[in-house]
Amino acid sequence: MATLQDVMKSLTSVIGNIPQYTGQESPDNYYSKIVQTFSYGEILGVGGFDDVVKTKILISKMAGKYAPVPDQHNGNNINTPERFKAWIKHKYDELTYGLRQTSLTKLMQEKFLPSDTPETYEERIRLLLLQTPNDNPEALEILWKQLPFELYSTVKIAQPNNIDDFFIAVRNLG
Predict the structure, then answer these.
(1) Which of 8, 17, 70, 128 is deepest in the core (most CB within 10 A)?
(2) pLDDT in tens, 41-64
(3) How many CB atoms lie within 10 A of CB 111?
(4) How many domains is the chain partitioned into structurally?
(5) CB 22 within 8 A of CB 65
(6) Cut 0.90: pTM above it
């Protein structure tokens, strides 16, 4: 019969191939990758392979702004995978939306300059949109307001409904 040590030894190489979490993907996707590796221990029916052990594994994969993981979130100990998942989603939202709001604030201070080409404009502005979803209506509205009237009219004909389409329409001007 397999022991907890056997399971942990086997999981170490699999989990080691998954990079530390630094916010590079959605928390749900990352969580799923790690939780899928738990099936090995569950199949073997090792009694000690419980929620506390699984949570410690999840916590050990956090890095950057996601480390250290606090002991509690919303008044609950982070001692189950579900509570860990709630914490990481909260942390991701807190960091991502905070960055996104800062980016949108900076974006409002920009405009299409007389010295800009469609390429230089996009290059400069895209840096401010790194944490912004392609279909963000606030960002798209801000982009529209940056264009001089003559460009605005021409881009409007293309009817871009997301950020990528907006930049394609601007590039097609040149």
Answers:
(1) 128
(2) 788 778 889 999 999 999 999 999
(3) 13
(4) 2
(5) yes
(6) no
Are 154 and 75 contained in the same domain? no
Rounded (10°) angle between helices 118-126 and 163-171: 160
Please determine, for residue 130, whether its predicted confidence score (pLDDT) is greater than 80: no
* 89 vs 121: CA distance, rounded Å: 34
Asked if 66 and 91 touch (Cβ cutoff 8 Å), the reply is yes
Give the CA angle between residues 36, 96, 70 to the nearest 5°: 65
Tokens 């009817």 locate to: 159
> How far is residue 77 from each of residues 35, 121, 137, measured CA to CA in Å?
19, 48, 37
pLDDT in tens, 63-120: 999 999 999 998 899 999 999 999 999 898 888 777 777 778 889 999 999 999 999 9
Q: 150-160 b/e with 16+ CB inside 10 Å = b?
A: ebeeebeeeeb
From 72, 99, 126, give the residue that closes a domain: 99
* 79 lies in the same domain as 122: no
User: How are beta strands 72-73 and 76-77 bridged, if at all?
Assistant: antiparallel
**Host domain of residue 143:** 108-171
